[in-house]
Structures are given as structure tokens and as C-alpha cells.
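Lab notes, practical 5.
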Amino acid sequence: MVNFKWSSLALLALRAATAFAQDDFDAEPIKSVPVEQPELKADIETTFPDADIFGVKIVNGRVSKALIEITNHEDSPIDVSFVGGTLKTTKPLPEDAPASAAILRNLTAVRYDVSIPAGEKHQLPFQFVLDMNPQDVIVELIAIISNSATNQIFQVEAHSGPASIVEPPTSLFDPKFLTNTLFPHSIFLYLFLTGVFSAVLYFVYKTWIEALFPQARPARPAGGPSKKGRKAAIIEAEPCPALSRPAPPAAATARVTTRAGSPTITSTAPSRAALRAALAARRNKSGVGAGE
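Output from the prediction step:
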């Protein structure tokens, strides 16, 4: 019974001490002392090779590449462990919205584990692929760098700038579209472009250039007839329709020369006109004899 009373009193005393301590804690707030964070002595510059005069464009379905160049100004080497990033919206957020509400997409972090000696620079490629609705975003890249001498870890902003997410072009005259879609291998693209270029040159030559140069005439043979002589020979060789009819056989004899060269006399049968003339002569003679 005595032990139970002492235990109850100890519990009441612990509660009272806790209440007094809580009052003292509320009455005297703890003052935070600012601690100076060491800074990394390094320069980081990020560029996008595919950017044009209109800015950075992120094409859906294609690899977007960023080159991160880090120059070490520390007295000891620094190690680049990871590089990651996020895509944030360009639209203003409400005042009560958390900072994470601006994040549209997290980019996959890439591990490097690259050591950069003191006073030297190193370039790191960072690639990512997206498939989002076309819009304007802010690309932020963060690098995790550690100092091997002091064992300190730094989270450094490597890039923060606007970019545009666009759809890939579908024009047949776009080399990237031809390379990625129609011709996955570059050799086929070169052959196709060579054929198109040759066809264009041939069309230009046949349309404009060939008309500027006179065509060379074919050379005449040494002993051959001229163009006028060939025409005359052709005209003479063509038979005349009026002269091509068979001539009526004559009553007289014709002289024919044989192959041996000796002339032979051949007789032909009398024609109808000759027979009629002979009959008329006989009638005239018979009429004259009867009159005498």
C-alpha cells in the first residue's frame, strides 16, 4: 500500500515537472543562429547544341541534348555525382500554392562520378526524351558536386531558362524527318538526296543549258555524195507511175544483148493495131483490083 502511494506521488511530480518545463519552453523561444554555408568555387555553363535564334526547342520523341561545362576553381579536385532536372510551368501560381506545384515533369537523373582536378574544366552531356503537350516551360538542371578534400556536398544550379516543347516536323524535305522515319540509316539518305540532286541537274540542263549550245552536225563521208546529190538520186530512183505501165508490144523486132555481148534478134508477135492495119491494106488492094 505504501509503495503504491509513493509511485502515485512520483507520477504526479513528473507531470508537474513536465508542465513547468513546457511553460519555460514556451516562455523562452530558442534563437536560431545562422550558419554560413560554404560556397563551391566552380563555374558551370550549360548550352543546348540544337538551339536556334528562337531559343531552346524540345521536340517530342527526340533526344534533347545539353552540354554542361564545369570549371574547377578549388584547390582540390571536385567530384560530379549526379545531374538531374525539372520542367516547371511559366504560369504564375497562387500565393498559397506550394513550390512543388510549379513542377510539370521531373527529368531522370544521370550518374557521372567524374572527378575534375583543380584548375581544369570538364564537359558533361545530359540527354533526355519527352512526350508532352506543346507548351512553354522552364528547364532547370541541378548538379550534385562534392569536394573530396572537405567532404562537403553541394547542390548547384547548372541551368535555368525557358524552352518550348514542340511536335516533330512531318515535312518530306526535313532531313531529320527523313533520317529518323524514312531512312534510319544515313547511307540511304545520302543515296536518296544524290538521286534527287541529279534529277534536278538533268532537268535544268535539258531545259535551259542545252538550248545555249549548237548541236554538232555529223561528219560527211570522204567520197560520198552530198545531201543534194542523195536527194536527186532518190528522186531518179523512184519510178514514175505513168512510165511504169507495160508498153504495148511492137511489130518490129528488138535487138537484145546477151551476157556474152553478142547481139541476137528476137521477134515479137504483132500487136492488134498492126493486124488492123494489115487487114485494111488488104481491103484497099482488093478494092483497087476490082475497079480496074
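Observations recorded by the TA: DSSP finds five helices and ten strands in the chain. Confidence is low (pLDDT under 50) at residues 1-14, 16-28, 240-244, 249-262.
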